[in-house]
């Protein structure tokens, strides 16, 4: 295999799902339009410029990382709801789970949620990050059902020379004893505005930047709604920041109930409480 397949914006969600299930990753060309990309740079660029390099070998000592991304811009709706990304994530992860409640056989479909978000700017001189699986965060075993579908939006061009994400196609099918090797990894090349989508069980890493310019990516992870969020969105984002987004995104940010019953507040849908800024459970309980 010569690296990941790429699809154009005309590809169907089914096509993207098929490629993801087979190869574990896919590149979607023209994932966002130029206007969206410019707006993201305007809102997020200054935070990156103000950020120092990381301090450890894993996050990179020539790499700048900025998190709480949904709190820094209100322009991420077209990114997280991009049909190939959100559609594929829903199709892959929101599979009905059968169960009995008494003698009734019912099926429960889990929600999905935004987990970790980061801007990752790899500067010249940064070495390759160790290959890893992001669903290791949830101690998943492999091969197994997918619990994460992740996006890397190219905010600048990604090349083999500037640290374009290294991906081992098909590695989500491997068991937990097989170690990843750099020889099997392919660098992601894509112009700014394209997106790499990959499954949580796929070995990948940031690449080595031997060029003379930084490479900037924006990553968003969508996880199953019954797992703990990697980034604590409830504390990372103010209520005001969340309310700038439409209902679908607010629910994705975690203000939702995952069937059969995770995440409720006062036995009710947390979304309702969020959407009514006058309602405060603390005050209600005190009165
Ligand atoms: O920056 C990249 O291309 C990937 C980074 C990554 O996989 C990570 O930091 O966990």
Automatic annotation (TrEMBL):
Database matches in InterPro entries: Phytyl_CoA_dOase-like (IPR008775)
Coiled coil: none
This protein's record includes keyword Oxidoreductase: yes
Keywords from the UniProt entry: Dioxygenase, Oxidoreductase
Any single Pfam family the record assigns to this protein: PhyH
Keyword Translocase set for record: no
GO MF, one example: 2-oxoglutarate-dependent dioxygenase activity
Listed PANTHER family: ECTOINE DIOXYGENASE (PTHR20883:SF48), PHYTANOYL-COA DIOXYGENASE DOMAIN CONTAINING 1 (PTHR20883)
Name of the protein: Ectoine hydroxylase-related dioxygenase (Phytanoyl-CoA dioxygenase family)
Organism: Actinophytocola oryzae
